[in-house]
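Hi U.,

Before I forget, here's the chain from the pilot set. I'm dumping it here mostly so it's searchable later in email.
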Amino acid sequence: MALSAEKDSFAFSDFLTWETDERMEIIHGEVFMMAAPGTSHQLISGEIFRQLANFLDGKNCRAIAAPFAVRLFEKDGDAPKDVDTVVEPDISVICDRNKLDKHGCKGAPDLIAEVLSPSTQRHDQLVKLNLYQRAGVKEYWIADPENKTVRVMLLTSDGIFQIHEVYQREDVAKVNVLDGCFLELGRVFSE
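Structure:
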């Protein structure tokens, strides 16, 4: 899909009209193309999602895997043309069902997990980390397939992400925003 050369800023209203299989995000009006994830990325993301979804079965919170549009800064009354940031985290956990609509999530999920890929490392660890922090995501997981680790960051009362724990492949990782939820990283990094 070709983006209009005449347009220098995009919004959620544009996002809704794009008919393409390509994955894209809009950050502050700028479009970012997303490369197709590799096999390792998908296996890791899928296992994190599976464990979260199994834990949440029958509970109020929902785990949702990409592609899934998250409008981090959208507020009630915002028109799609006014929303200039739409991201697609690998996994989102949303406990406030009022944030879910037919297009995705309006506002910050409670937890976001991203799996690093060679093409997304900088984006996930800098750009998206800062966006998620500003939006008020309570817990951010960065899974690193190369080192077989999960870095868990929690939002402090000052609105800053602080590294809470770095888990290794042999660990059982605690999901801090979900009481009683633990993920077996040996299954996540089984390859």
